[in-house]
Structure formats: structure tokens, C-alpha cells
Amino acid sequence: MSGVGTSGVGTSGVGTSGVGVIVDPAPPRRGSRPAVGGYLTMALAVAVMVLPLVWMALASFKGMDELYRLPIQWLPDSLAPTNYVTAAQSVPFGMFFVNSAITTVLGAGLKMLLGLMTAYALVFVDIPFRRFFFYVVVCALLVPQQIVLIPNYALVAQLDWLNTYQGMIVPGLASAFGTFLFRQHFLTLPRSILEAAELDGAGHWRRLWRFVVPLSGPTIAAVGLVSIVTEWNDYLWPLLVIDRPEMMTLPVGLTLLMNFDGIPDWGVIMAGTVLVTVPVLAVFFLLQRRIVAGLVTGAVTG
Amino acid sequence: MLAGPNIALLVVFTYRPLLQSFYLSTLQWNLGSPTAIPVGLANYGDFFADPGTPRMLAVTAIFTLATVGGGMVLGLLLAVLLNRKLRFRGAARTIVVAPYVLSGVAVGLLWLFVFDPNFGVLSALLRAVGIGSPDWYTDPQWALVMVIIVYLWKNVGYVALIYLAGLQAVPRDLLEAASLDGASPLRSFVSVVLPLLGPTTFFLSITTLLTSLQSFDIIRAMTNGGPLEGTTTMMYSIYLEGFAAGRAGYSSAIATILFLVLFVITVVQLRFVERKVHYA
């Protein structure tokens, strides 16, 4: 199996031959030579990205004796899910999953709602100091998480919110990024539709849901998916406010599998990482166009 | 009012703690303790007098430069590659971006096993080409290299993706004109494409810098700041001081310094770009 070899070390080998060829010279001639180098580089890049994940998946089926065998072997002796059973027995993975799902759905959902409402107000409602409020939202993007860590922790502890869902969710709820993207999108919507709706006597709430939201499907989907991925993977904040296992989310609970004293049972740990990564990978591969759009939107308009 | 809740949350959980952090940095205060002693700027004095500080700043600088600079260079090369008219490039794009959506903790643990000096796949590969594996787990310098590699693996797809979007906005006729003028592909990349990517590069330099300086989960999962504090960045030290050692005032002082550094960098970048990037 060492034939898979050359691609191992990090990202250093990626794309050295690519630079000159960006130009897509008019119609690409069939079978032209530079393509071979292109394909090789692409294969190398893909291998570097994929092999660690394959290694993880295969290791999750290996017993201790297989993991610590030299020379290393790639394929497990059997596909029995022993490590998954061990992982689920040593820590409450079911609870972690439920907690992750609750915080992700509530966190991402409420964040979107707040973002939509704020962006609507900033674009379509004649509020005083509109520009000022916009800056309040945008400048928040520049405040790094670590500086608010201790004061927010102290506040959450004071409110007696440690080890609660609200403690995990509420401090991160304000939507600066989402509001910003929604606003950029709303500015492109035709005002005439909303003016017509206003003449028909529709209030702001109705105008938002009946006219603006239906016209914003792709942006909402993109922001929503990016928020879901972010919430699902969030680690630092839940790590701080949760110390009871039954309230932990998957990323926080995962580290409980590390046995820092003895030899780590990598098979069990890899089984845990598979359980954390597979749902989000599945979502990504199913909906990657939308997620990619969400990631790029900020860059192009920003 | 529609914007009310969101603005209120921003004030309570972003702007209030921002200001409070400045205040906390002037206290000698342990997290959870009822008493706090005002000490003025003593925490800042302690920070600069601490013999470990220069090293921690150096680790932060190396980590940041390597992840931001390395990420932008590798990301641009990847974007150029994935922008070529090759079969399967759509699939390749998806795969290259995929690690970006994964949990940093899971990625850290997975790579920790890849790096295992005896039983990991990397050491097997290194043995196959006739070199032994470095001591990733116990040598501070190699441990730093290790977390940098993993950070790049996870995040390079995002940079590539944004550059790809930028590349696709480059007008074809400009490139055709350059090609008619006899410019080599490399030449037209350097003098036509690269300048047009200026705004994208600017956007990426700010966002990746902010993310890199805040990175936490990979370091926590892989090294916990060690060995011998070889991977303790400023961000990680804020966490260790504030929550492991409980020195909340001191930790707030580090956070404030980090914030000021970020603020200055951002302002300088904005200024610089206002003057330099004006063709869009």
C-alpha cells in the first residue's frame, strides 16, 4: 500500500505547475501536453485532501493490535463496528448528538431570523440613524471572539446559565455577518413591489414574509447553511460554559475519548471523529453549491 | 422594532464585553472570585516582564505568518489549477473545500493519529522514502510545524474558493489582448490577473488574519499549547491564563493587547488598500 505514498506531507506539493496556465487559451486543443501536468497536480491535491479522511475511516474499524502493528496496514481485518460500540459505551454520544442538533437548529435558526429582520429594517424602514445602526452591526464583525470571552463568561455565570442551552446559544445569537449579507441582497430588490404592497396596506412584518423572503431564497439558503456548519462545529464557547457530560455537544464530548494517561485507543477515537465529521460532510456534499455560494458571497460584495 | 433584538444582543454580548475587557485588564481578579483588586496597568507590566512572553509572541508570529501567507499562496495556486479546463475539476473543487466545513477538534484528533511517530501513516510514508519521522509530539518546533500543516489542510480550500471566484471575474478579452500582444501565460498572469485579484487578496488578507489569530480548536485538540509551550499562541494563552490558571485580569490584558494589534493591522490594511486598489 505504500504506493499511495508521495502525497503525504501536508500541502507543500500542491500546484507548482499551475501558475502559468491560468489563461485557458481560447479553445483548449485536444490532448495538448500541459493537461497531463494539470491532471497530475489535481490528483495530488485531491489525494492530500482525501487520504487523511480515508485513514480515519479505515482506522475506525481497527482493533488495538492492528493499529499498533508495524509496518502499518491500511485495511482493517474486519468491518465489525466494535470501536463504535466502545465509543458509545464510554461516553454518551447519543446525548452529544441531541445537544449538537438542538444548539445548531436553534442557534442557526434564530440567528437567521434576527439577521433577516435587522436587514429589512436597515433597508426598507425609515428609521432614524440608519447609517449609525448599520455601522454598529458591521463593526461587530471586527471584534475578535477572545476579547469578549471572559466578560461574557462572567455574565453567563452570573445569570446562572452555565450548563444550559441558553448559555450556549444566546451570547452568539446576534447576527452581524448574516445581517450584512442580507442587507447587500435586499439593496438589489426592486422597491416598486414593496411600495405596491404598502399601498395595499401590508405592514412591515407581512411585507418581510410575503415579499422579501420569497425573493431571497438563494441568499437565505447560503447564509443558513454556513450558519449551520459554524454552529455544529463551534467548540470554544461550549467548552467554557459546559462541564456536565450530559450537556456537551459533539466536538466538546469528542475529547473525552482521549485517554491522556495511557496509550490512546486510536480506533475508538477515530470512530468518534467519524461520528462528528460524517453528518457535516454529508450536508456539505449534498448542498455544496449553496454552501459554496454562501462562502463566496461575502468575498465578492465585501 | 425589527432591528431591536439584534442590536441589543450586539450591545450586550459584543460591545459591552469589549469595553468591560479593558476594565478587567486593570484588575487583579480570579474568575469566580468575589473580590477584585484594582492594579492599574500592572497586568500589562507583568506581561512584558514575563520571560515567556517573547517566545509566545514569536510562536504567534510564526503561526500567523505561516498560516496566512502559506494559505494565500497555496490557495491561489490551487485556485489557478482548479480554474483550468480539466475534467473532474468540479469534483476536485468540492473535495478541496470539504475539510473547511469539518470540526476543528475532529480534524485535530484525526491528524494527531496521522502524525503518530510510530504508527501513523505519515511516519510510514517517511520511512518508505528513507527518513525517520520527527518527534511531532515532544519537540516544540516540530509540534508548531504540525499544527500549521493541519491548519493549512483545513483552511486552504476556503482561500482557493474565494480566489476561484475572483479568477472567474477576470474578463476574458483582457487576457486575449495580452496573449495577442505576445505575452506569455506567466507574464499575463503576473501583469493582468494578479493586479485584478487585488481586492480579493485584500479581503482574504483581513479575514484569514482574523481567523488565524483566533484559531483555537486545532491547537487544543492536538497539543494543548505544548510541548513546553511550543504551540501557545496569544489566543491560546488568553484561554490558558483566563480559564486554566483563572487569572482573568491578566488574561484580559493579553486580550486587549491582541485586540489593539488587530485593530492597528486592520486600519493600516484599509488605508493601504484605499490608496493602492483603485481600478475596480
UniProtKB/TrEMBL annotation, chain A:
It comes from Pseudonocardia hierapolitana. Pfam families: BPD_transp_1. This is Carbohydrate ABC transporter membrane protein 2 (CUT1 family). The keyword Membrane applies. The keyword Transmembrane applies. Keywords: Cell membrane, Membrane, Transmembrane, Transmembrane helix, Transport. InterPro entries: MetI-like, MetI-like_sf. It is found in: Cell membrane.
